[in-house]
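I am writing to request your help with a piece of structural work I have in hand. The matter concerns a single protein, recorded as an amino acid sequence and a row of C-alpha cells. Could you please explain, in whatever detail you think fit, how the C-alpha cells follow from the sequence? Thank you for your consideration; the sequence and its C-alpha cells are set out here:
>
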Amino acid sequence: MIENEKYDLSPERQLTDAEKKLVWKKPSTHKVSEEEQRIRKEIKRNWNRGEMKIANILLEGDAGSGKTQLAKALSADFGLPYTKVTCFADMDKSDIIGAILPVISSERIEKMEPAEQTVWKALYESDGFQSIAEILMDALGITQEQAALKMKQLLKLAAAENTDGEAIEYRFYPSEIVRAYQKGYLLEIQEPNVIRDAAVLMALNSALELDGSINLPTEIIRRHPDFIAVITTNRSYAGTRPLNEALRDRVQHTEKMDLPTKEIMIERVIAKTGFQDGKMMGILADMIMVLDRTARANAIKGVAGMRSFFYWADAIAGGASAKESLYHKVIYKITTDSEEIKLLEEALKSQGLFASLEEAEIELKKKRKSDDAIEIRTWGDIDDTGFGKDNHGEEKGIALKKSADSDESSSRVSDDSTHMERSGLGEDGSPNYHQANPESMSEEAKQKERDFRKKLNREAREVISDSIHKKVKLIVHRPDYDEENQQEYVRLCQGLMPIVQEIARKTLPYLEHEVSSDFARNRYYGSKFQADSVAYRDYKYFAKKRPPTESPTLVVGLRVDESASMSAYGRLEAAKRAVIAVYEYCQLCHIPILIYGDTADVSRLEQMSIFAYADFDKTDANDRFRLMRIHARSNNRDGMALRLMAERLAASPQKTKLLISISDGQPKAMDDYTGSYAVTDMKQTIQEYERKGVTFLAAAIGQDKDVISEIYGNERFLDITNLHEFPAKLVRMIARYL
C-alpha cells in the first residue's frame, strides 16, 4: 500500500509471518483524520533525530472519540505489529514485566481440577512468544484482568503444593508490554490512569524512556528502536485519576480527542454504514453534538460520541424508527436517570431538532417506496411466541438497497455483485430477479474465485494430512447459483425474516457492549458502590467499568449433513430454512459465519465432498442464494467435516467459537467408516477442538437422535422434534452465546 510505504519507519526490517498478521489492515471504511495525518508526519520527521525522536503518544478524550481506531491506523501507517494492554486498578509489577511460574510435574498436574490442568498445559505448550495473560485469556476465555488474578492464584497454588521438598524448576513468562517493548511493536496502553499502585506506574515510566530498559528476573532488555507506545485514556471518568505527571512528561506528542466536525462525522458514518441520506445524517449529527454539549454542561457522566452515531444511523438505515432508536442507541447510553433524560430532551426540543427529525423521517419513508429500494414483504405462520408485539400490525420486511459499501449488511446487496440485478416487484409483492450472465464476469473476478477455491482445497488437505482421513480423496466446491435458486430463497424466506429481525433487534443492544463502556457488577472492587448487593454478604459490592473489545465476541460455523436420507420427511427444506435464518441473523448482527455442507462417496475419485456456501474469508451478498444448492446426496463422513470446520474456527480471533452440526443420521461412509470406529473419531475430534476453544452443538432432525445424542453428549445435543420450529429455535440458541 502506498500509504504504508510512505511512512514506513524501518524499510529494511523483515517481519515474521506471525508479526505480519499483527499489522492492522485498514478497512475500506477507514477515513484518515487530521490527528492521524499530524501524528504520522511528526513521527516520520523526527524518527532518526536522536533525543528529538517521537515514540510515546498520548490520546486523551471521551469514549468513542476514535482513540483505539487511531492507534490501529498508526500500526498500518508504519507497518508495525499492533498489540495492546488494558490497565486495571489492581495491576502490579508482574502485570508490567511478567511472571515466573514453577514447572510442575505431569503427575501433579493430573491430580488437579480439569480447569487447572487446562491452564498449566496451555502454559507449558506455549511457544514462548505469547504473554502469560494472552495464554490464560485464550485457554479460559477470560478478560485480561481475570487472567492477571488467575496468574496470582496459580503462584499461590504451586507454592502451597510444594510440600515434599523436591527441587523445582521455573520458567519466565513475559508480559505483553515486554513482548512489544523487546520486539519493536506498536503498543496501545489503555487507561493507565486507573492504576492505584504508584510502584507500577514507576515501572511503566522507566520503560517509556527513549533509551530505557526493563529489568527482568532473567535479563535486562533494552527498548527496541521501533517500539512505539500509544497511551489512550478517557477524560475525567469515574474510577480514573489525573494521569501521572512523570508519565505525561515522557510523552512527546499529545492529542485531545473530541467529536470531529459535523462534515467529518457524516463522512465517517456514510463510509461505515453505507447510509446515504444527507438530510437525515445532518440532523443526526446535530443531535449528537447537542447531546454531547448538554451532557457536559450538566455534569451527566455518559457520552454521546461517534460510536452512538454509527449504531443510530445503522439502525435507521435498517428500517428502525429514528426517534425510538434515538433512546436505545444514544440517550440511554448517556443516562437512564429520568431527570437527566428530561434535560437532554429539552435541549433537543429547544433547537427544533425533534421536529426536524420527524420531517426527515417522513421524507425517508417516501424515498424507500421509490425505485431506490425493494422491500420484500414476508408473511408466514411460524410461531413467534415469546416476541414482543410492538409492531402495531405493520408488516415487517427487509430492504435490499444497492450501495457501494453495503456488503457488511444482510439487508443490502453490494454494487460489487455481478450475479444479481434488481427488476422490481411482481404482482403478488414478491421480488423478481433475473440471473446475470456468468460469462459477463471479468476474467479477474473469475480468477479470484478460482484462487479462493484452490486455497480452500489446499488448506482442507493440510488439516486432514495427519488424521485418520489423510488417504481420503477430498474436493472442496464453491457452488454457483441460478435464477431458480433465487426464487427458492425468496419462497423459503417467507415467514422467517420477521422472526429473525425481531431476535436480532433484541440482540443488537447487547452487542454494543463490544464497542461501548459498560459496568460489570458483583466485583470485589470497582468505581461504583452497589448498595443492593450488600444483602448477599459475599463482599462483591462494587461495579467496575469494563473496557470495550475490538473484535466480535462470536463466530459461527454451520455444518449441514447432505446425506441421502436428508431427502425424507421434509428434513432438507427444514435444514435450508434453518440455514437461511442463521445466515440472515448473523448478517444483521455482523457475526462472521461459515456454512459448509458435506457428503461422502460421490465417486472413487471424490470420497469426500465439501460445499463452501458461505465463508468469512470471502463474504458475498449472493451467498444467500448459494445456500439453495444444499441437496441430499450420498453418504456422510461426519468426523472429517467437523475437523475441517473446527480448524477454521479455532484459528479465528473471536473469543466464542460455535460449531453447529445439522444432521439426521449417524456417520456412515465407505469402506469402513461406520459403527464404533466412526463414533470414536467424532468424539476424539470434538474433544480435541473443544480444548482449542470450539463449542459444539448437534441439531438432530432424524431417526438417529439417540445415537447423535450419545456421540455429542446431552449438553451439546438439540432434539428438533418439530421441524417447523427448527429455524427460530436455532437462531435463539445462537443468540444465547452473545
User: Anything to note?
Assistant: The radius of gyration is 27 Å. Residues 443-464 form the longest helix (22 residues). The CA atoms of residues 564 and 632 lie 5 Å apart. The mean pLDDT is 77.
